[in-house]
Amino acid sequence: MAAPKIIVVGGGLAGLAAVIKIAEAGGNVDLFSIVPVKRSHSVCAQGGINAAKNLKGEGDTTDKHFDDTIYGGDFLANQTPVKAMCEAAPGIIDLLDRMGVPFNRTPEGLLDFRRFGGTLYHRTAFAGATTGQQLLYALDEQVRRYESEGKVQKYEGWEFLSAVIDTAGVARGICAMDLRTMEVRTFAADAIIMATGGIGAIFGKSTNSVVCTGSAQSALYQQGVYYANGEFIQVHPTSIPGEDKLRLMSESARGEGGRVWVPRTLGDKRPAKSIPEGDRWYFLEEWYPKYGNLVPRDVATRAIHKVVYEHGLGIDGQPMVYLDLTHIDRETLNRKLEGILEIYEKFVGDDPREVPMKIFPGMHYTMGGLWVDFNQMTNIPGIFAAGEAEYQYHGANRLGANSLVSCIYGGFQSGPNALAYAKSLPAQQGDGGHAAELTRQKGLNQLLLSNQGTENPFKLWRELGDTMSKNVTVVRINKNIETTEAKIEELLERYKKVNLSDRSQWANTSFAFARQLYNMLELSKVVAIGARLRDESRGAHFKPDFPERNDEQFLKTTKASFVNGAPKIEYEDVDTSLIKPRPRKY
Amino acid sequence: MAEKTIQLEVKRQASPNAEAVWEKFELEWRPGMNVTSALMEIAANPVDASGKETTPVTYDSNCLEEICGSCAMVINGKARMACSALIDQLEQPIRVQPLTKFPVVRDLAVDRSVLFENLKAVKAWVPVDGTYDLGSGPRVFPQQQEASYPLSNCISCTICMEVCPQFNEATGFVGAATIAQTKLFNAHPTGKVYKEDRLRALAGDGGVQECGFAQNCVEACPKQLPLTEAISDVSRDVLIQKAKDFLRA
Fold first, then answer.
1. Rg of chain A over all Cα atoms, to the nearest angstrom
2. Coil, strand, or helix at residue B23?
3. How far is A127 from A314, CA to CA, in rounded Å?
């Protein structure tokens, strides 16, 4: 029997980690990515990667990492896989170190660690403030090595359209589109691993990259894969508001001592640096004396919202607060945070070593995602998922610097699991559904290309982003969510009248975008309806009308399935076998 | 129009062999705009300055914060990243065209895969034994980390190649980015196992000796990589390697 063929979709950390494991085990792997994999969104991660290496003499342990992660996620994550991830994390750091990641070092030449949100330990290894970039490159280099040995075939510039599923409901490959020739074809595989990242684009502006549309996850959801915990969206407390996107200002800025404050008086016209200590309100430090500026992200985000919208103390009356690093010496800032300071300098024009940064919360991370079992497999046999595209490791709120470890760990799990699954897969009947799926996808393309109407897909997308950001992010009120649901229905109706201003069949980016947009709209419904039905507050999901966590009713994973064109929501018990849920108070 | 507008001219080309044409756009000004956000604006309202309907511009972009390396193009005659090219800092009309040293795919999108092929040729990776748990990595002192880290920041944007007078079909020069990665991996305690292979790969035609020290690369690099220093160091190592190989032969 020939070596099993695995398809990995997505070339960020999770996808590359899966590819490496499969290639190492002798499997045959095709890697699909919209962009050259080295340009994947993992490159944007800044602050670091968590592992309880306990190199600072603090008595940190993987058990404490596990507890911080579960508590930080407000007990919504299944505990067994999270524990395994935390236990694997120190070994993952060692491996990355061996691969040549230029982690910051102590004078003795050991790995340096910094503090991050939601923990009291120095647990975060880092490479300046471009840790995601450095990790992605290390894995990219290993995959290039396997590629040069003929063990990996890359399909860069191809977009996943759907899975090929046979009559028995088993995955047999994927259907994808070449973004240059616009050719649509199917590719056979014994198993597929989806590592397609987050869904920031459904909120219009976010810290995510352009490719993070959630289109692939949505396509699979529409084919029968459960989408879990869709309503859990992380809004990062510190991003730089922008015209085209919200640029991330890493939590490491606070990990290295950055302080968040506003002037105590509205309309204080003095330059920030000249405002005396007594006239500044360090509200996070005042409200959360134990964790201070390093409370988890959902907590910090709500605090900033409160200061701006309830106390009316945003800088100059604008939705912005100060993130201040100016008390830290330049040399330290440059050594540990240069990458993010450069971003601020380039895009805002001020030097954050001299002037406090102006920041505001921005949509950042997708805790929910494709439902997977403890082996990383979805409910459709042969479809696996890893990284931000699945839901498993972060519960109701992700702790900073846990995403990189969950991506790599999930990739490392899914690769060998997919291979083991593929080895015992019975041969397909007939063509495994390839011809039918190809026909369906070509039909969808044809419909879009021949559409006559007046709607511009980019304008529809902006309207989607506006309504989602307004009603389904930090503060959620049921009647507002209903407004958003109605708006999405309106947009779906108008989508039928999308008129492509470009109907050519060569590198047609607006055509590819219009396909993604449809999937974004369907997925937005999952997020909105999931949020409306969860009448409690837990982690990043906050409803002022239901301010308490309600374990009796909602200590459950939300599972959405696509039934008659709409999300059908059901709930599944959470694995709390190791840590008993307790109130979350920082 | 009473509102403030910006003037943008984009060099467009429908396909690799099609003729290129310049198209003019007039867009509403908004604070904080950059060249990629202006291109997004065109996509949402694909109409040229004369009011004629056109198509959205094809271009590469992803992170929009100058770390993914996608959106390199020539803006007002200078090769740079479009996402960090702030409109308010550019002279108008802003003229945007694709990189000139790489095959055009469509409009502003070009094929830069040659860089990734070059990285294969110099084995730009650390050959780890495997991904199973083998304990901690080699000890690295902060001084060495501080030397490696800047080289590891290369975003593969290919701007160093675009601006290099020697990077052309006649020389087949690999360009500064690949040479900088060679230095990075040759300095790594484990990566240096391939040092000789890498240096030999850069010893022949198209290798380091093609560099004419114009120093354009180091000036244009958006990540301020110490490129000329890397080229000098690797050139010296290549010469030493050539001498060794000659003596051994």
1. 23
2. strand
3. 33
- A-B contacts at Cβ under 8 angstroms: 194
- Of B44, B86, B116, which is closest to A459 when you measure between CB atoms? B44
Q: What is the largest CA-CA distance in chain B?
A: 77
- Give the phi and the psi of residue A488 in degrees, each rounded to 5: -65, -40
B113 to chain A: closest CA residue: A36
Name which of A36, A97, A510 is nearest B137 (Cβ-Cβ).
A97
| Pairing between β-strand A321-324 and β-strand A357-366 as defined by DSSP bridges | antiparallel
Q: Roughly how many angstroms between the first and final C-alpha of chain B, as a whole number?
A: 76
Residue B93: cis peptide before it, omega within 30 degrees of 0: yes
Q: Where are the domains of chain B?
A: 5-110, 113-248
Residue located via tokens 């459960």: A226
C-beta separation of A261 from A282 below 8 A:
yes
Q: Name the CATH code of domain B5-110 (choices 3.60.21.10, 3.30.70.330, 3.40.50.880, 3.10.20.30).
A: 3.10.20.30
So what's the pLDDT on residue A69? 98
Please determine, for residue B1, whether its predicted confidence score (pLDDT) is greater than 50.
Answer: no
Query: Are A84 and A406 in contact, with CB atoms under 8 Å apart?
Result: no
Helix (H, G, I), strand (E, B) or coil at A230: coil
Residue of B nearest to A180 (CA): B105
How far B42 CA sits from the closest chain A CA (Å)? Answer: 10
Write down the pLDDT at residue A243: 84
How many other C-beta atoms can be found within 10 angstroms of the C-beta atom of residue A117?
29
Return the residue of B nearest to A210 by Cα.
B62
Res. B226: pLDDT tops 90: yes
Please say whether the dihedral angle defined by the alpha carbons of residues A315, A318, A322 and A326, taken in this order, is positive or negative: negative
**Which residue's entry shows tokens 């080229």?**
B231
Hey, do B5-110 and B113-248 end up sharing a CATH topology, with the first three levels equal? no
pLDDT digits (tens, 9 = 90+) for B183-218: 999 999 999 999 999 999 999 999 999 999 999 999
Superfamily per CATH, domain B113-248? Alpha-helical ferredoxin (1.10.1060.10)
Q: What are the pLDDT digits (tens) for A386-403?
A: 999 999 999 999 999 999
Low-confidence ranges of chain A (pLDDT < 50): none
pLDDT level of residue B3 (50, 70, 90 thresholds): confident
With cut-offs at 50, 70 and 90, classify the pLDDT of residue B2. low
Q: What is this model's ipTM?
A: 0.97
Residue type, B108: L
3-state secondary structure (DSSP) of residue B69: coil
Q: Which of B150, B67, B179 has its CA nearest to residue A127?
A: B150
Contact between residue A173 and residue A394 where contact means Cβ atoms under 8 Å apart: no
Amino acid at B182: T
**Catalytic site positions of A:** 297
Query: Which stretches does DSSP call E strand in B56-196?
Result: 72-75, 78-81, 94-97, 104-106, 109-110
Query: Distance between CA atoms of A64 and A87, rounded to whole angstroms?
Result: 10
Closest Cα in chain B, distance from residue A191 (Å) = 22
A26 touches chain B (CB under 8 A): no
**8 A C-beta contact, residue A89 and residue A405:** yes
